[in-house]
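Handoff note, outgoing to incoming analyst
You'll be picking up this chain. Sequence as last confirmed:
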Amino acid sequence: MSVISAFLLCLFGWQLTSSAVFAHNLAWGALPSNLDPVYPFQFLSTSFASDDGYTCAKDKGCKIGCCGPIDSTGSGYCGFGPEFCGKNCTSNCDRKSECDPGWGKEWSQASTCPLNVCCSKFGFCGTTKDFCGDATVVSPQCSGTSAKGRTVGYYEGWNLERPCGKMGPPDIPLGYYTHINYAFASIDPQTFRIAPMDNLTASLYQGVTALKRQQSHLEVWIAIGGWAFNDPGPTRTTFSDLAASEAAQDTFFGSLISFMQKNRFDGVDIDWEYPVTDERGGRPEDYVNFVTLVKRLREQLNQTGRKYGISITLPTSYWYLRGFDIVNLEPHVDFLNVMSYDIHGTWDSTNKQLGPYAFAHTNLTEINSALELLWRNNINPERVNLGLGFYGRSFTMKNPGCKKPGCEFSGGARAGECTGTPGVLATYEVNKIIQKGGTEMTLDKDAAVTIVTWDKDQWVSIDNQETLRMKMDYANKRCLGGTMVWAIDLDDGT
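Most recent structure output, in case you need it:
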């Protein structure tokens, strides 16, 4: 690899995966297009050439980095450090690298990278060999069945609004889940008191917690927030505002405890998507403030005299996860729910580093890379729940003759009759398609996912019993404490 090619990879390929955001959305809509994954790499190089963001001239600055010395042809290259930003710099000379590969503080924003990822010789943070060289991550290794100890299932209260495929509280299958997280409750942005998401979800609280009478040791927790909570609107900055004010926290804690006592909830799942990130209503101070919020929440819950649980959701994306101080959050939570789904979807089409190419949304290879971000920070795997999706991301393929992962799509597959949104299908909808016949099913062993194709151009990646076993085997191999499912009501039990 040439120096320029290596620089380009470091310049544009530093992020790990798309964020797992869809399933915690209140609607089945499109995801943001500002995520820049590195997988698959083969689609990266063409966008660099067309953008020409790595060369400069006297009258043309750099998109990223400083414009170094101009040669006899009147052009130069963009980069960081004293070679590009020092005495021979042409323009944009005050820019600093993301991390310090040895240049010193004068040339870098920070000495190290977030989440202990590697700093390349060009001053960019990343996790691949181009950033880390021969350094490897030491991942947990086990031979037991640790992940069977905990199975958390999210339940979408609003599922009863669907025209079909509904699952009321009495229909929730018992004996499979150790914990049910009821999604979602909200927070009043003015008073910081717990508020219902809507009247329907509020009416089902006690119907779900009543299931504890039928299954001993079942715990039912309330999940607060979700993806849409941080969409543009009145609650966009509510988590950030709450984390910044101890007075607001005191109100929130009192309201939450009363709410859980009244409705017989056993714990709370904080689903903040995401701290620090500006486009999600975050602020830089969220990094520290979230730790304070969770620490004080733990103290207040402990003072009630009973053991209430706390969990938080984590993205697989480096871009979003770097806003979490996971090292200092971990001691105050019971477990961490890793949203290891929605790695790919129709939103890839607007991402110039990926493009409109179909890939599985729960790719185990990418999930492994994502979990390495936790192992880099010595997170206890017993606290980690691996996210599993009871739904598939689906596409309409541009060329019906090309149906393998990596083939081009023209849009989302046809909407399911119950979920009603192109590009996504519940497990029970995929099962119904399979039962009708005329489908082709292909197991991708490396990704641990099944690809289902039908009607010439329809394509979906889905987990079935075989691939779920493969993911469970992986979770056990990594010593994880459990799994987490989005969502109970998207499966028909088959």
